Each structure stands twice: as C-alpha cells, then as structure tokens.
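Entry 14. Ran structure prediction on the chain below.
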Amino acid sequence: MLTNHPPTVAESIAPPLPRTGPALLPVYATMPLRAASGHGSWLVDEAGHEWLDAYGGHAVAATGHCHPDVVKAIQDQAARLLFYSTAVPHPLREDLAELLVSLCPRPLDGVFFCNSGAEANENALGLARRVTGRTPVVSVAGGWHGRTVATLACTDGAGYEASARRAGMPLSTRVPFNDVAAILAAVDASVAAVLVEPVQGVAGARDCSPEFLAAARAACDRTGAVLIFDEIQCGAGRSGAFTAAESYGVIPDIITMAKGLASGLPIGAMVARPWLTDHLKLGDLGSTFGGGPVPCAAAIANLRVIQREHLAANATAIGAHLVRGARALGLRTIQGRGLLIGFGLERAAKEVQTALFSHRILTGTASDPSILRVMPPLNFSREEADLLLDGLRQVLA
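Output, structure tokens:
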C-alpha cells in the first residue's frame, strides 16, 4: 500500500511559497514573436507569419535557419551517437579540428573545443597567462567578451566590471578604441595578453582600423604578450573572409570563435599558435561537452556550406549592397565589415527596431543607442537585402 513520504526538514519548517511568476526567469529582452520554425533568412511565428531575420539569431544562423545539409548531419549523427565525454575520442572532433586549421591563417594550428564564446575567451586568457607567467590584460573600450569571471573583467561596462570585482578578478587595462598610441603605450613586459574584437559586435559593429590592429601585433611582438582576436561575432565568414584576421592581414596568436560555427548548436573553439600549445600537458585544458559528436557534425556541415556556397564572398557583396542602399537613404554613419553592419541613426535605434517589427523585420541594437545592428545569415540574398532597405526607408520616412 502506498503511503505518503515523511515530510522533509524544509517541508516541516514552512509550507511551500505560492508561485510569483513564470518558471522561466525573465532575464532577456525579447522580440514580439514566438518562433515556430525557420528557413533560410526567415522565421515563422506561431500564427504562420514569416519574418525577415536580419538579426540572424544574434549572428548565429550563419548558413540560415535549418539549412538542409546541417539538419541532415545533425539527424544522422544523433541516430548514431548523441554524446560521449571528451574521455573517449571520436573522429568528428578530430575532423572538425583539421577543417578549422585548414580554414584559419597559418601558423594557427592547435584547436581546443568548448561550448560557447565566453568559454573560448576564458581558455584563451588562461592559456596566455599560463605560458607568459603574467596576469595583466589589455582590452579595448567597447569590447564585449562574455560573462565568465575572466571575460567579465575585460568586458566594457560598469555592471560587468562590478561582477568581476566581486569575484576578485583584476580588471583589464582598457585603451580607447582605435588609439594607436594608447595601445603601444599600454602593452609592456608585464602584460599577458591583448584581447580585441576586430569588429566590435555589441558596441555596434565598430570595425577596428588596420593600423590599430597592426599596432597591437607590434606591441605584443615587442613584449612577448599574447594577441587574442575575439571573433565570436565577426568570424566564421561574417567579415568577408573566414577569419576577420585574414580580412585585415593581421594574424594574432589566438583566435576564438563560437556563434556562427555550427549555425545553431552550441560550440566554441580556441585556435592557437604552436608556441602557446606545444607544452600543454594532459589536464591543462578541459571540457566535458566540448566538441561533442552532434555539434561537431553540425559544424562540419555548416563550414562546408560556407566554403561550397562562397558565403564569405557573399557577405562582402551583400554587405556592400546594404551600405550603398543605406547611404542612398541618407545615413551618414555606417560601420562594420561584411554582414556585421552598424547603421548610425539620428533617432533612437530602439525606436527604429520597434517600427521595423511592424514590417516583420528583425534587426538588433547596440550599446550605442543610435546604432541599428544588422547581422543576417551569410546567405542573405540581394532581394532580402532590398526588403530590409525598403522597410528601413519606410520607417525612416
């Protein structure tokens, strides 16, 4: 016969409190639709309406929503093996590492997989500190690198800095954006790493000047510091080459990537030069889920689509078309590279974003309230770009 279990200590002290809100914590600002499905550059809501996605799931949907090659790779791998930890090798992890190395500029040739961009940056900073034996980091005003302890200390913003301080993590030294003299002066023999987004995402698609990145490279070469390019948002073809580093002609010591790697499945990667990785020992880096079979299968399929369909070149071409169209609309401030673009507006970008919702067009905003951020799938077509420009024209009129 079934009997009621004896009350737990907690139950005997007080009755359960009534629910005060939804189970899912309301910590995100959300767009006014409930997504049911997606295809290409389009989201479909629960009522069956299609929305043009110029936000790309926050630059994640590199090959669009539900590209058939990516879907098939996920389905096939899920039917064979969903997961095993990094304690057991599997060929897809090795194949993806080889593919990434073939796509990244030399001499970057050592890959570590994790689950997110923040983890990739955290491991990059840890590796730089381990190899150099130093602690200080130099970062750039406007940079956004994640919410882990080490990355919070490098992310621009008072709230992020306060979280890092509470955790006891020393803050990075922040230099002004594109200030060549400042970065040359800030990087001395005490610095472990310089962390920079070649194109700053959250700041509004602000693209660093080639001179600034070259100065960062020269400063690191002079002092033995590690140059880290955070390409979480601007990499994987989005800036017009597979890595933003290639589009600038400046090669860092480490590149971190995540968002667009698997077009929707969570995976992050750190790709490093041999002088940083040659002396790694078992246990120096680790991740239970890093490089799991299904995300690796998705990433391989996704990267092959980017290669086969020449999507980095498409990002350049369609990005240039959007820039020309925006200038024709009278926008004077336009920044970014490829399909990571910031449109400077003479009114609050949030208002324009909201008005575009009425045209069923999704875009992003930025920490700069005047910047409307556009980061659609890399296979965004000219016709879809024209729909975005037409919606923008109607809203701005």
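The CA atoms of residues 82 and 294 lie 6 Å apart. Will compare against last week's run tomorrow.
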